[in-house]
Amino acid sequence: MYTDDNQLYIAHCDNGPLYMIGKMANRHGLIAGATGTGKTVTLQVLAESFSQAGVPCFMADMKGDLSGISQAGKMSGFIEKRCPEFGIENPDFHGCPTRFFDVFGEQGHPLRATISDMGPQLLARLLDLNETQTGILNIVFKIADDRGLLLIDMKDLRMMLDYVAKNAKEFTTTYGTVSSVSVGAIQRALLALEAEGGEIFFGEPSFNVFDFLQTEGGKGVMNVLAADKLMLNPKLYSTFLLWLLSELYTQLPEVGDLPLPKLIFFFDEAHMLFKDTSKALVDKIEQVIRLVRSKGVGVYFVTQSPDDIPDAIAGQLGNRILHGLRAYTPREQKAVKAAAQTFRSNPTFNTEAAILELGTGEALVSLLDEKGAPCIVERAKILFPLSQIGAITEAQRSDLIRRSRLYGVYDKSFDRESAYEMLVAEQKQEEKRLQKEAEEEEKRKAKEAKEKERARSTSSRSTSTRKKKSAGQKALEKTLNTTATTIGRGIGNKIVRSILGSIFK
Fold it and tell me: What is the rounded CA–CA span in Å between residue 35 and residue 43?
């Protein structure tokens, strides 16, 4: 489908083929339409066209259908009927080089991120935290950064939260108030996420986004994420894809406008990204979308209705493919009218009416021209895929995983020293210090008690001796006093008698 002058043939209208200009493919795009109108096939057609041009793609596979992009397609009655319409005589059916990924490591190479990589804003969204709790999480990350504590997995974050809560008074002056109630709420949210299998996603080795930018035999590699299980947790799904997008924005160098993008990122079920998302985070997403194209990345949102995308982001989506919409309610009728107004009108048909009339495989298509201006909208038929439509077998998937260059790179996890280990070691040292101090205090008290006992014993003996001495002295003194009195009295009598005797003699 790809032509040599960097144009991708993707649809056919009454006026002939419709081409996407290669150097405008990084101006992002939108694929929208009600369920069953052909969005997945359109995504597959675009992806294999990019692959043929040497541009790798990333896509989430909700039901396993996109795994067929790895195998060659085959002729069918529907394709045979469409070939003359598209001017194709002998379709070159072929598969694309494909690598499978799975957050849970069951249907592809594991995809992991560290807690630090995810960051507090995305993690707060994943945990559904309020503003106050998000502020506490920011403080925890800041303290970890300042102290060189790596947050790799969930046990690191739990330990860090516990550490900050126990030492809240120490951190309040520098970082702000840390509420134990908010910390408890975050801990409970982590337990809930862990119960849903979220802990599998966090750890090492962390995924290197440059592994998405690979080619094989001149064709871009299709990076297919198994998302059937991941979709059971929409918050985890959308936050994970947003993390991947932010990693691409952060790590890829500036390249400007290239003849062809370095990567096309298909964001399926895009409405989940913006549901219950704070305005601050939507603003960040808008900034990433606006700037990531200078990194050579084109982002294509796939959703059921164009109004699922905020206006600030929708305004950046230059290449638009709109399948049929349904308008059973006033809100849906309003959405159809709004969608029609986003196109540059075509005088040959009523855009609003056409949206409701489109059959499966048909779409309203408006692509950017060489100067970046939107072309008038065309009512067209999307090309058929040259790869297999529908899921592959488990045996085929397993064989592709084993033959992948990434086989064994991410499959085995490891746990290096991080916040948990460092805080546990610090806690043990503190316990040893406290135990040593307690033992020394015990020895000191024992010594003091022994000295007091010795002092009491010495004092008791001294008192006993003094008592004995006092009793003896008293007895002696009494004896002496008695003797002295007797002697005195005898001497006195003699003296008196002598005197009197001499007087009266």
Answer: 14
